[in-house]
Request: fold
Amino acid sequence: MSLKTTFVATLIFGAISSTTVFAADCKVDVEDPFDLEAAGVVALYDCLKDKMVEGYTKGDNEVAAEYRNWAVTSTRPAVAGAHSNRFLQTFANDIAAEQYLKFEEESVVMPAGSVLAKESFGINKKKGIGKLGGLFIMTKLDAGGAPETADWLYSAVQPNGKPMKIKQSFCHNCHVSWEAQDMLAYPLEEVRLSN
Ligand code: HEC
Reply:
């Protein structure tokens, strides 16, 4: 990834913090998300997970209302670096789950109608508490539906339920790094859930 992409990513994801909803009672004793042990991540997630859905569903986003019933793709949320060092956890809808959970690395073609929803949360260093991040969504359209982004439609919901203003190219220019995986980056290997 280029420095420029990183910079733009910081700008866009940074802008989200201004509307971040703070979860006052989810304490964290580390400042750097990479320092939080697995058990700590799970504890923080347990504290935040209901507030998360409460926030995402304040608007009328259909995925926000449904994704928790889909297949979870990791054993727990994890921090990969991309998406602003947030802890990430991806859910796959019925159409996507079978192929996605193979985590194949070559010639992947996701079926039209596949939807991946990735929830995110982070740490508010000053307050020492967890903070909600956005819900990031990729929807595979019918062939030819979005030729410039390999028929993927990118979208995102803020923690307050409002749609996030995003550019297709911003998301795609990074996701195109995983072209052989049909643009999917997959969770970190250590937390991947196989079916
Ligand atoms: C700087 C690179 C980068 C940018 C920009 C980016 N992503 Fe991602 N995205 C990733 C990485 C890396 C993962 C896998 C991380 C993980 O789950 O541990 C990922 C995972 C995802 C997933 C889960 C499906 C998958 O790829 O396995 C969705 C959905 C998603 N991103 C949506 C978006 C949307 C929507 C945008 C634009 C607002 C966006 N991404 C911008 C790097 C990026």
Remarks:
- Strands lie at 22-27, 71-72, 78-79, 87-92, 115-124, 129-140, 152-157.
- The CA atoms of residues 71 and 90 lie 9 Å apart.
- The domain at 3-191 is CATH 3.50.70 (Chalcone isomerase).
